[in-house]
User: Which sequence fits this backbone?
């Protein structure tokens, strides 16, 4: 498999936007103001399929971590990169934050 890739910022942004479309904030966590940030390292193939993923950092909440796992299932496949020769790794942050706005 490929190593950590130097992906264009525009592709990383596309991945983050794609993930946001599948983000689910559990209602219980919202009511309790449970917040956290996960970092996920995933290996994608050239078609955008997740080959594997793991938590690099958990949210600190089992409920939010479960939401991240569900999001990863729902979001697969991801957008394929324009140029790709082998599977590659990428780390993405997933933040659960309640704004006061």
Assistant:
């Amino acid at each position: 498999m490929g190593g950590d890739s130097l992906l264009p910022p525009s592709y990383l942004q596309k991945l983050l936007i794609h993930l946001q479309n599948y983000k689910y904030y559990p209602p219980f966590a919202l009511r309790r103001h449970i917040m956290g940030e996960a970092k996920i390292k995933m290996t994608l193939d050239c078609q955008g399929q997740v080959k594997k993923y793991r938590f690099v950092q958990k949210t600190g909440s089992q409920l939010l971590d479960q939401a991240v796992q569900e999001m990863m299932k729902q979001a697969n496949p991801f957008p394929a990169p324009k140029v790709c020769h082998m599977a590659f790794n990428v780390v993405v942050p997933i933040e659960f934050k309640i704004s006061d706005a």
